[in-house]
């Protein structure tokens, strides 16, 4: 072992001394002011060992920030040249990466479309500037597959069935088109125009967090309604006026029955994880909610599985719907291969 600054003889001596040191379990305590001493060495050898080890540490120490080889010592320049801010390093993707041949888009008759437009980049999507700014702040590298193929349909007001694994990025597949609709028409907070139904409190809260991230800075207000929490604060938010309501079937029905929530203005309806809601026995509550929503609504329906019971519900609640399937989802229960990170 040879370290720069040593001749071969010194390097061999260092190696021998280190071997001697490793053979001893407990080093002796040196007198005050003396260097650490290992049995088998005299004080002069111990001092030489200490000096050689210092030389080795200096050689292998990382360079200080700002010097060549220091990694992230300073902001990168545009196109990788140091000195200006340039593009951010992207965080992990929020969607499942699936090749294009695993994406299937069907028209309302069930015919598989050979070609279909998609928004392969965020810039390609015709979202208002405030939403594009929020996407830039989030730092996502690119839209997920479900986003790329659902957004063109949603922006045209088409009913959509999205069959994709849990964690594939479905949330902003439905939130951003709805927010664009609200912003372009300058819809003020009042009774909601967007209603998102989710099976669990946890999912409803997650959707609300994404709503705050992408909508709050643009002036889009949503309220999250779920059981297991006091109704008072949720009811107060509804009374103060919102553009959207996000919640579980039970709590939304509670507010409807109490006359505290009016869904007559809803024109954007989303059923997220519809298969789970059926499995949990929420079909009666879903029907009660939909009875309060205008039939002329635009509906988006997301599910991780596509069994007959879910198909029946979709055929009843949607009109002339397009179906976007990501991978083979006939019996899939959810994506177990990814970890979703919310930024």
Automatic annotation (TrEMBL):
Keyword 4Fe-4S in annotation: no
Helicase ATP-binding domain ranges (all copies): 151-324
Broad class of where this protein is predominantly found: nucleus
Transferase recorded as keyword: no
Start and end residues of each DEAD-box RNA helicase Q domain: 120-148
Annotated CDD domains: DEADc
Coiled-coil annotated residue ranges, if any: none
InterPro entries in UniProt: DEAD/DEAH_box_helicase_dom, DEAD/DEAH_RhlB, Helicase_ATP-bd, P-loop_NTPase, RNA-helicase_DEAD-box_CS, RNA_helicase_DEAD_Q_motif
Motif position, Q motif: 120-148
GO molecular function list: ATP binding; hydrolase activity; nucleic acid binding; RNA helicase activity
Subcellular locations according to the entry: Nucleus, Nucleolus
Assigned keywords, A-Z: ATP-binding, Helicase, Hydrolase, Nucleotide-binding, Nucleus, Ribosome biogenesis, rRNA processing
Region (Disordered): 59-106
Similarity remark: Belongs to the DEAD box helicase family. DDX5/DBP2 subfamily.
Function: ATP-dependent RNA helicase required for 60S ribosomal subunit synthesis. Involved in efficient pre-rRNA processing, predominantly at site A3, which is necessary for the normal formation of 25S and 5.8S rRNAs.
Protein name: RNA helicase
Organism annotation: Alexandrium monilatum
